[in-house]
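re the bet — no i am not wrong, look at it urself. input seq straight from the record:
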Amino acid sequence: MKKITMFLLIIAGLTGRVSAQSPVIESGLHGIDPRVSAAVLQVLDEYMATFNVKDLKGWEDTYQFPHYRLAGGKMSVLEKAGLRDSAKVFGELQKAGWDHSQWDHRNIVQASADKVHVDTRFSRFRADGSLIGHYESLYILTKENGRWGVKFRSSYAE
């Protein structure tokens, strides 16, 4: 229960709050600026490409820090780049037979000029092309210091 409460508090902090007394604010619209959409999809393309070649530095270059991930019932926070070991990050996946991943879909569901919610699904594959599994996820990308990056990932992957 504490983990769920913490998750909800983090989401509330990332997405903002509106009280009954506040004026109506139109943020997070469903009408997406095509420039925002293109920038976000480019970051997600780079995210997947660097992940697939096991380029940990390049992959972390697609993040915003601190970077949050909720998966397997656990919230992890990466305060800055360079804190993880590439062998550990990719080794466990490779032991399970993973060779590469691909996006099945990336649907921007809400966006503003500096934050976007993306409904995603990705698949993991073995070297022979056989499917390991499909994983639904929610990615939140933010524009900070003039740069888009992945701030938060909530995934049903391990």
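see?? The CA atoms of residues 141 and 150 lie 4 Å apart. told u. also The first strand starts at residue 63 and ends at 71. so pay up
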